[in-house]
Recover the amino acids of this structure.
């Protein structure tokens, strides 16, 4: 072990404790969205295959959920796979990634600590993957713990389109005409048909890997969110990085679009 590594092992726990102690409960975000970015770059950096990066990223999910519990976060949304990935990735790479995601979600459910809620266009996923996500949700439905949205096959534009489609179908089933709907529809009507309906919107969205763009993540829900961009690649994202994000959020004056 190098000298710098040894120093970090000694100093980081004390630093983490100091950061955590300064967080007031009233300044902790209720809902945190996380864009788990940088797995492929991490794999290249260590000279490994892409799948190794995704497995390393999957292994970092449970620790991060534990950090969320420690500070009092109530809802976490994890973007594991975009709808664009389903068409843009080579089939062999996509198949391996879906297998890793299935294993990660099943592992989260098996702990019995968290309530799993899939968000995304499950109809776009292979039948086996969709069934495993639904099974994880069913198995944890009554868990009284952190609510974990697993966004697989997710795209923000598609979510809004699906919400509007569901709204139209619902109103049509009640006999309301398009003209009648146009007179009364508002943002709450659409929000009631989002994948995350009934949940608070994310207070904080974290993106790892240094990329500073939203990429279609929770487009509707993040209108008033605070954003934190972290240089660490997702497999290297540490508790101290998470606490820094929470501290940065707590220090901001939220203007809610003002």
């Amino acid at each position: 072990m190098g000298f710098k590594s040894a120093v970090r092992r000694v100093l980081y726990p004390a630093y983490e404790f100091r950061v955590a102690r300064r967080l007031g409960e009233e300044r902790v975000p209720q809902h945190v969205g996380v864009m788990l970015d940088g797995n492929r770059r991490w794999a290249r950096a260590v000279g490994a295959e892409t799948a190794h990066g995704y497995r390393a990223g999957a292994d970092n999910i449970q620790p991060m959920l534990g950090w969320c519990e420690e500070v009092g976060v109530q809802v976490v949304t994890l973007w594991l796979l975009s709808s664009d990935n389903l068409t843009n990735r080579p089939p062999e790479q996509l198949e391996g990634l879906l297998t890793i995601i299935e294993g990660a979600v099943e592992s989260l459910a098996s702990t019995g600590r968290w309530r799993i809620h899939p968000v995304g266009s499950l109809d776009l996923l292979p039948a086996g993957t969709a069934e495993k996500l639904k099974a994880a949700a069913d198995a944890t439905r009554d868990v009284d713990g952190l609510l974990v949205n697993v966004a697989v096959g997710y795209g923000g534009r598609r979510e809004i389109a699906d919400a509007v489609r569901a709204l139209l179908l619902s109103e049509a089933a009640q006999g309301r005409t398009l003209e009648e709907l146009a007179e009364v529809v508002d943002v709450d009507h659409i929000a009631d048909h989002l994948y995350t309906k009934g949940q608070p919107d994310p207070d904080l969205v974290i993106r790892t890997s240094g990329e500073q763009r939203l990429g279609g993540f929770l487009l509707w829900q993040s209108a008033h969110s605070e954003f934190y961009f972290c240089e660490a690649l997702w497999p290297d994202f540490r508790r101290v990085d998470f606490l820094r994000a929470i501290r940065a959020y707590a220090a901001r004056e939220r203007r809610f679009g003002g």
Q: What stands out?
A: The CA atoms of residues 101 and 189 lie 32 Å apart. The first strand starts at residue 31 and ends at 35.
